[in-house]
Design brief:
This is Beta-lactamase-like protein. The protein is α/β, with parallel strands linked by helices and 312 residues long. Helix content is 23%, strand content 19%. The strands form four sheets. It has a six-stranded mixed β-sheet, covered by helices on one side. It has a five-stranded mixed β-sheet with strand order 2-3-4-5-6. The chain binds zinc ion (ZN). The site of zinc ion (ZN) has 6 residues, from helix 3.
């Protein structure tokens, strides 16, 4: 059961600035010079039939928009995979690299000294590598997930979302105060919102406006019984997500992380996006004001628009 073909997967880097002007980047996407990836990663890419296209590094895009490599205090890696770590070389050595402790313990030294490591030694040797502390004074829980209050003022949290890889992280970005609204940057905790929804906490509504998904002015309503029937025809409960996750280092943790994210996802003050979420292209303004413009309501069932790709 699953999708019949892998769709186009974008990979995003998030530029985050708090009210005091402190700037960080969450993930760096893929680097354009693929020949400089670690030998183990190049070998993996040689064995799969993926078409990889990277026109610009994230640094190039920032540079074109007037930013310098010294403008950021830190780059946070959600995890060590090649499509997230980008190329750190152009960033100032004053820019810290923030990772999960297990990533540092598992993959250092980098591939300049150890062929199996996916991380270039030059990414960390010239800068501070900071391990996120989920037990220190800035730690807290968001739902049942461990969190770290990065700026210490409740504007940005790093989130413990284990499972997809060794030391996988997500993040929670505050988008408004009163009401308190947040965008969850899920990174690779999911690879389709159909791995998250529906859930026992967020069941299928009485009708899903699947017309809205392609055009906000178009109304095509799909009643809940049709969606439920569709789920039942695939031997799934109506309150089960559309898809099972398949990409993970520890699938038990992948499932428990998704469950903990579902416990936040029902709340209309949260909106979850993920690292390869094609639906968010060009919607940064809408994401920041999602509670004001019914963005969540419009986009939350986007996976149903892909239902014609499903097979039993
Ligand atoms: Zn990825």
């Amino acid at each position: 059961m699953g999708v019949t073909k892998i769709p186009l997967l974008r990979t995003y880097s998030f530029y985050l600035k708090n009210s005091q002007g402190r700037k960080v980047l969450f993930d760096l996407g893929a680097r354009k010079d693929l020949h400089n990836l670690a030998p183990s990663v190049r070998h993996m890419l040689d064995t799969v039939e993926w078409e990889v296209k990277v026109d610009k590094n994230v640094f190039d895009i920032l540079h074109e928009n007037g930013y310098k490599g010294t403008d950021f205090e830190a780059i946070i890696w959600s995890h060590h995979h090649w499509d997230h770590i980008g190329d750190l070389a152009p960033f100032s050595s004053n820019v810290d690299l923030v990772v999960r402790p297990r990533l540092k313990d598992t993959y250092l030294p980098g591939h300049s000294n150890e062929d199996a490591s996916p991380i270039p030694e030059s990414d960390y040797s010239v800068r501070r590598m900071i391990k996120v502390d989920f037990n220190g004074p800035k730690s807290l829980k968001i739902g049942r997930l461990n969190a770290h209050d990065y700026f210490g003022n409740g504007s940005f949290y790093v989130l413990d979302t284990s499972g997809h890889s060794v030391g996988h992280l997500s993040a929670v970005v505050r988008t408004s105060l009163n009401p308190d609204t947040f965008v969850i940057l899920g990174a690779d905790a999911i690879h389709d919102t159909g791995e998250l929804r529906p859930s026992q906490y967020l069941p299928i509504p009485e009708e899903v406006n699947i017309g809205h998904l392609s055009n906000p002015d178009q109304d095509i309503f799909c009643p809940d019984h049709a969606v439920q029937q569709f789920q039942i025809s695939r031997s799934r409960k109506a309150t089960e997500p559309l898809f099972n996750p398949t990409a993970g280092y520890n699938m038990v943790n992948v499932h428990s992380t998704i469950q903990m994210l579902q416990e936040l996802d029902w709340n209309e003050n949260f909106f979850l996006i993920y690292a390869h979420d094609d639906s968010i292209k060009g919607t940064v303004d809408e994401l920041c004001a999602f509670s004001e413009i019914n963005y969540r309501e419009r986009m939350i069932w986007i996976s149903f628009s892909a239902s014609n790709q499903l097979e039993d």
